[in-house]
Amino acid sequence: MPPVDVARWTTTLTASYLAITAALVVILGNTVPGRVWLVAVHVTLSGSLLILNRARPSAGILRVIRDWHPLMLFPLLYKEVEVLAAAMGDWRLTAAIPAWESALFAGQPSLYLSERLAFVPLSEYLHSCYLSYVIVIPSVTAYWYVSGRRAAFGELLLMLSTVLLGSYLFFILLPVDSPYYLSQRLGPPLSGHFFFDLVHQMSARGGARGGAFPSAHVSGAVVVSLVAWRHQRRLAYLLVPITGSMMIATVYGRFHYVLDTLAGAALAIVVVLGYRYIFSDGPGERQSACLAKASMPSPASSCRVGLDSKTVVDRVAAVARIQGNGQAVLDRIGS
Q1: How far apart are CA 76 and CA 165, in angstroms?
Q2: What are the residue ranges of helices labelled H in 132-193?
């Protein structure tokens, strides 16, 4: 299989998301504030990315934009979800998810976990892991980019774009409110400490109602860990415990239901496995390689095909006679 231009796939995916959401606003978003301007911005960005994709710049600011545009757009598109979901979403899952959660876990873990484990050191640790999401993703991508690990960088951006943009589209159509908006906010003794207050202030300003299921927070973190596991195992050893703690923190801090977290992790795993199946490790590719190898007989096997022992002896004797005659000619020339 030829090398995959992952930047091209990532740019096409982002442009497609912008075009699809613009179409949804046109068809369903009669009550979306600033509808005309929003559609115009989406269409302009989508067209610009497709033009950039076709040009495939190899250097300069356009190359940087092509490589980095998903990370620039993720926060804006996530916050936009709140506006679009309010106007176009079907909110029936907001009641269904907590009901399923109660049936599966004998109550709401997002409520009783922090009540039963109301320890400040634990709370601060978990909230710091939750905060790591906004640090780890740009830090890892920047490190791989500047250190020349472009394959890892490209895979990460493509898979992040797949899980996050796919989740955003789901949030718009089938939004789910998180416990953060529906339950009582956590107070003392957990509140009033650095990481707790910082995380809850950021969530109050940067969160998006309707963006709970599946947890994009979890899916993004799991994707980073899995890509690191493939390309830089030592880094993955650091990221995996942080990601696991962050998954617990999403429930402990009342940001997500357990089902949100499990769905986010499952989405990330499916996308990573799908990428490897399609582009690198799929059985179809292995089968093609085996067939190609099988269709190329080895020299030894080609010498054996159609030859019996007498024929082989005769041909060896003929080669010996030719070599002997050639040596005699050389002797005469030398004399």
Answers
A1: 12
A2: 133-146, 150-173, 179-182
